[in-house]
Amino acid sequence: xxxxxxxxxxxxxxxxxxxxxxxxxxxxxxxxxxxxxxxxxxxxxxxxxxxxxxxxxxxxxxxxxxxxxxxxxxxxxxxxxxxxxxxxxxxxxxxxxxxxxxxxxxxxxxxxxxxxxxxxxxxxxxxxxxxxxxxxxxxxxxxxxxxxxxxxxxxxxxxxxxxxxxxxxxxxxxxxxxxxxxxxxxxxxxxxxxxxxxxxxxxxxxxxxxxxxxxxxxxxxxxxxxxxxxxxxxxxxxxxxxxxxxxxxxxxxxxxxxxxxxxxxxxxxxxxxxxxxxxxxxxxxxxxxxxxxxxxxxxxxxxxxxxxxx
Length: 310
Prior knowledge:
The chain is an alpha+beta fold. The protein contains ten helices and 15 strands. The chain has an eight-stranded antiparallel sheet. It has a seven-stranded antiparallel sheet with strand order 1-15-14-13-2-12-11, with helices on both faces.
């Protein structure tokens, strides 16, 4: 699986369209845990199973007025998704078997046949389409297809609004209700523990330009620092960080890392990431999703941002 790393200044990812599996924040604030807990109450990550009223939920989500939402239904290999980046635009992915057994769907909807990559382990053919949810020539075909294919589907809904109505037979859980931020001391090897006085006297390493080699080494080092956040990691990151040469840019950060801590949380709505990115108490934030990760360094005036996609 190929990966692509991009770097930008003062530009956060435009739209994160999936739940954040792990979120970690480097901070010197003693109250950031409470801030995160408060943000969790303002958004939701709903997980549903056995959903039988898909059409109703799609309609209510579009009409909810939420500034941010991502709604996805999954039934076997078939997927339906809408999100607030393009309201009323529906993305459909059907496997070959489902598409052939609902051939009427292709009368007016334009599906693109997607063949697996050469040498792919699983030879699965998909058919993809994007449609408008509303009065269109294919409206009846679209609603019939959704009702037939996605009855009893699994659901993920990221939103800032309350829960949708779930028809009998379905179940719904808000992952934010059980989410609880935790804090741990930030691990740094001894030679990286620069005193606050030394850091304050050093010129800031946060500027609006950053050479590519410096960007790469800073990204790699801070990624190791953030590994404290991953619940499935052992102390192998401690050895890795100890062996890694400390980049000069870390020493010149405007806030000392020696007394910092990591506030961590799992299963988070991306709006929490965006809110924290503008918080001056957050020196660095890393958000990991199913398909990539985002890393930011914040000085208040300038932010460095890395996006890893795979």
